[in-house]
Amino acid sequence: MYSEKVMDHFQNPRNVGEIEEASGVGTVGNAKCGDIMRMYLDIDEETQIIREAKFKTFGCGAAVATSSMATELVKGKTVEEALKVTNKAVMEALDGLPPVKVHCSLLAEEAIHAALWDYAEKHHIKIEGLQKPKSDISEEEENEEW
Ligand code: FES
């Protein structure tokens, strides 16, 4: 049911933890399944490059695996490039997810956006293409087509 990569990132998640005095922190949840994800980003203010990304996820195995992969994918990228790390990109990097678990990858995408939003607000900057993230993605999910 799960790819080897999903199992690997679930059993050995990368970048678990917190970043003290992070440049941006974002927390999102899904009220329907009750899962919660928090992302921490350390961003170089001059280059806008994400130096470090860490996460804490209280959720299902796919939520852990997608947060792990999402942090791996955004590390070393600029904030603008990180916006391209969509839930689809995370799923592709994990060799796919079962349809009922697609929403878990959306949580990872939204958590990155929430951390970037926090960074932008703290530094009074605007990140092109970034929209205000939702703290609960369960409503949006119903209208999404997979
Ligand atoms: Fe909700 Fe996985 S079951 S995030």
Which terms summarize this structure?
alpha+beta; 146 residues; Sufe protein. Chain: A; 17% strand; binds FE2/S2 (inorganic) cluster; globular
Q: pLDDT average, as an integer?
A: 94
Summing up helix and strand content along with how strands pair, one would put the structural category as alpha+beta
What helical percentage do the residues reach? 40-55%
Overall domain count: 1
The radius of gyration is: 14 Å
Number of strands: 3
Which fold name fills CATH's third level, the topology? Sufe protein. Chain: A
CATH class: Alpha Beta
List the helices and strands and how they pair.
Elements: H1 4-11, E1 24-30, E2 35-43, E3 50-58, H2 61-74, H3 79-82, H4 87-93, H5 102-122, H6 138-143
Antiparallel strand pairs: 1-2, 2-3
Helix pairs in contact: 1-2, 2-4, 2-5, 4-5
Bound molecules: FE2/S2 (inorganic) cluster (FES).
Structure description:
By secondary structure, this protein is α+β, with helices and mostly antiparallel strands. The protein has one domain (about 5-125): Sufe protein. Chain: A (Alpha-Beta Complex). Helices cover about 40% and strands about 15% of the residues. It is built from 6 helices and 3 strands; from the N terminus they run αβββααααα. It has helices spanning about 5-10, 60-75, 80, 85-95, 100-120, 140-145, and strands spanning about 25-30, 35-45, 50-60. It has a 3-stranded antiparallel β-sheet. The two termini are about 20 Å apart. The model has no long low-confidence stretch (mean pLDDT about 95). FE2/S2 (inorganic) cluster (FES) binds near residues 30, 35, 59 and 63.
